[in-house]
């Protein structure tokens, strides 16, 4: 799995990018995620953690 950087847009002479990671379908199923579901993200040194967004 690789982290990909993609150009998103240019605004007032500044370039904006997004980062993409493809998650294997098996991992998505094992996590219990579904397409279109809202996720929360948390970053710690060396880790990115995705969790189902809590409904409020």
Secondary structure: elements and pairs:
Blueprint: E1 4-11, E2 14-20, H1 25-31, E3 39-44, E4 47-52
Antiparallel strand pairs: 1-2, 3-4
Brief account:
By secondary structure, this protein is mainly beta.
What does the main sheet amount to?
A: 2 strands, antiparallel
Shape: extended
How many distinct domains? 1
Listing every helix as H and every strand as E from the N terminus to the C terminus, the arrangement reads EEHEE
Instruction: Please mark out the parts with pLDDT under 50 across 5 or more consecutive residues, or reply none.
Output: none
**Mean pLDDT across all residues, rounded?**
94
Number of E-state strands:
4
**Sheet with the most strands: spatial strand order:** 1-2
Give the distance, in angstroms, between the N- and C-terminal Cα atoms. 33 Å
Rg over CA atoms: 14 Å
How many individual helices? 1
Helix content: 10-25%
Class by alpha and beta content: mainly beta
Strand % is over 45%
Please characterize this protein's 3D structure.
The protein is mainly beta and 56 residues long. It has one domain. Helix content is 12%, strand content 48%. The protein has one helix and four strands. The chain has one helix at residues 25-31, and strands at residues 4-11, 14-20, 39-44, 47-52. Strand 3 (39-44) and strand 4 form a beta hairpin. It starts with a strand and ends with a strand.
